[in-house]
Amino acid sequence: MWKLLLKIFQTGILTEKRGRPLSQTHPPGFGKSLAIRHVDAGSCNGCELELWALENPYYALSSGGVKFVASPRHADLLLVTGPVTRAMKEALLRTRDAIPGPRRVLAVGDCACNGGIFRDSYAVHGGVDGVIPVDHHLPGCPPSPDELLEAIHHAFGSSPPSSE
Amino acid sequence: MDNRNPRQSLPGLCLIPREDGIPRALFPQETPEAYLAQARILESAGGRFLGLWGAGDPEPRICTAFLLREGLFVLVLPLPKETPSPTFPSLSGFIPAANRFERTVRDLFGFRPEGLEDTRPWIGHDLWAVPPLSLPPGSPVPENPGAGSSDYPFVRVTGPGVHEIPVGPVHAGIIEPGHFRFQVVGEKVLRLEELLGYTHKGVDGLFRNRDIAWGARLAARISGDSTVATSMAYAQAIEQALDFSPAAGVRALRALLLERERIANHLGDLGAIGNDAGLGFALSQFGCLKENLLRKNRQHFGARYLFDQVTPGGVRTSLDDEAIADLLEENGILLEEILALHKIYDDHGGLQDRFQNTGVLLPEVAHRLGLGGVVGRASAQAWDLRADHGGDPYRRFPPALALAHTGDVAARVLVRFLEIQESLSFSRALLEHLPEHSIAESIPDNSGPAEGLGIVEGFRGEVLAWVRLAPHGVIEAAHIQDPSALLWPALEIAVPGNLVADFPLINKSFNLSYSGNDL
Ligand code: SF4
Asked: From start to end of chain A, where are the E strands?
């Protein structure tokens, strides 16, 4: 046990300072924190790797008041990755409908923005726009954690939401 | 392909050693009977079934891959061109793992596996009115008007107190989509059945009629966490088709990139497994180590996950002396950290209590399923392409095989720890002896049709690629096979008997790709 504590002590705090914490932006309609429901609509899982990275101590997403939630009922933001495969359309629609207003939709990655490399396939809808209205697009393959953080904060601070 | 020194022969099949990796070849079979007979011979000679896929016009066929100690054998069964839905003999009777592959071929191409009793759709989810790959490239595929109207017929367990838990396709967290159906009594799982295919993006269809460079970008996006492995397998396949051998420097850099991908993923998995067993400390510690490595990737190769780094003919980036020195320093630091964390994991009673005897996959079962990769090695299956068949540079610095025998979560954790250490010393040897290298050469043109195979040991297990080229580098058909497709059925066996609450932990210890499975 002491080895574990020692390791924590030796590691110290690695979180990097960037931007203002959410609690200072106070956009109307939301509280002081932001809950995100992520839906993978058929990504290659590259975008998920960077979403995961946001949780590591360097970016420490949750320390800024942003967290990923399991239930769409708790969410403010729907974050979608992947080109939206035919098989995921229904699940995406249902998840979106389960999120109470005001809500925002953020498309993450080239695939979610326009279908990316999979655009011409019979099996995809060619991006989130093809299925539900999108408020913000973040291109990249995959976008970096810094770009993700910025896009999430941007999506949160902006108003009014167009998907309502 | 040249034909010097046959290394070993099975009746009618022989492989030639290769400098750039595993001996591998395609073996056309004239009749369905011959195909079936050869498959039986390969299976009984200890061959591991690695996958089965189809290709449509202009040369409709079924390809079936077996890995033996001698190398990779791919049987090719040409199908009649004029028949609308030709049949082929099912292998599922003696190779249970062939079931989902044959159903996939039926869903996508309309080829009918004769003798397969399971008539349920698999990857296709009955979404299309006609098999999408039976149509010419680019033609619109009509949707099935009845799609989604009937439930997938999961096998149900009945009896007093048995209930069912459906999970997915959207999971609680940042996870790829797929559906799990649990039959449960009290807290205990009686049966688990998966329904995958939600991330099916029509990859095999997209390859058709593209050029080699475009195909390389697609090959890098089969499963983002395995981008080096899939790109490398694809590059090998193209290079074999064009009878081109990459320079020693290129081979060394590719091997280095593949190890960096393995280390990054193992670090991520070890953190996530510890976290699922209730140790948040693990997620932070391993998360930092992984992030450090990704940042070094970005600094020296220009991409955190090494997307598009391996290209047919070469690699994208070379390393100067300063970069080599920096990576050697990183190597030493990481090794120290890993040893310290391994000790903490071993000494942590709570963690070990969750790991041991959880999600057991018995060695006999793993053998019967023909598993390799981390999951196979954790159940005593001694297969690792780097240690077994290694061409250059593996032959020069042979990595040791990491093996465990208990088949539980603890074994899968142990194998990952050992592999990181082995990967680090292998990478160190590569960095210290990096040959002079040109990073890319232009690959030759082909005037006639050409075909090739590639296979590499990715971080999950064997990643396989097959390409068929029309003249002048046009891809006629291609297929990339992630090991997940073979490993998903093993998860269905490892979970029953455990608590529902242990499922996330067991699932994490497998960490399989949905995208690589669904293609
Ligand atoms: S944008 Fe790129 S990384 Fe993200 S899912 Fe698509 S192919 Fe993968």
From this structure: 34-40, 66-68, 77-81, 104-108, 136-138
B111, B88: one domain: yes
Quote the percentage of chain A above a pLDDT of 90: 56
B198/A42 CB distance under 8 A: yes
CB atoms A58 and B132 under 8 Å: no
Taking alpha carbons only, the member of B292, B333, B338, B316 closest to residue B228 is B316
Note the pLDDT of residue A162. 39
For chain A, counts of helices (H) and of strands (E): 5, 5
User: CA angle, corner B408, sides to A46 and B258, nearest 5?
Assistant: 35
B209 and B261 in a single domain? The answer is no
List the Cα angle B74/B211/B130 in 5-degree steps: 65
User: Ligand 1 center to residue B227 CA distance, Å?
Assistant: 11
Give the contacts of A146 (CB within 8 A, at least 6 positions apart).
A18
A72 CA distance to ligand 1 middle (Å): 23
Write out pLDDT tens, residues B286-306: 999 999 999 999 999 999 999
Interface check for A7 against chain B (CB to CB < 8 A): the answer is yes
Minimum distance, in Å, between the CA of residue A75 and any CA atom of chain B: 12
The domain locations on chain A are 35-157
DSSP secondary structure string for all residues of B202-227? -HHHHHTT-BHHHHHHHHTTSSGGGH
Give the class (CATH, top level) of A35-157: alpha beta
Instruction: Return the ∠ at Cα B312 (arms to B469 and B234), rounded to 5°.
Output: 65
**CA-to-CA dists, residue A21 to A52, A62, A152, angstroms:** 20, 10, 12
Can you tell me the distance from the alpha carbon of B121 to that of B112, in angstroms, rounded to the nearest whole number?
A: 12
For residue B304, count CB atoms less than 10 angstroms from its CB and return exposed for 0-12, middle for 13-18, buried for 19 or more: buried
Q: Are residues B401 and B472 located together in one domain of the fold? A: no
- For the ranges A15-24, A147-156, B192-201, B440-449, the maximum mean pLDDT occurs at B192-201
Question: How far is C-alpha A98 from the chain's CA centre?
Answer: 17
Q: Which of A51, A83, A124 has its CB closest to that of B174?
A: A51
Report the residue of chain B nearest A5, measured CA to CA.
B281
Calpha distance B88→B110 (Å, rounded) = 11
Say if residues B195 and B178 touch (Cβ distance below 8 Å).
Answer: yes
Q: Is the pLDDT of residue B130 over 80?
A: yes
Q: Is residue B26 part of a domain?
A: yes
The pTM is what?
0.93
Cβ of residue A44 lying under 6 Å from some atom of ligand 1: yes
ipTM of model: 0.91
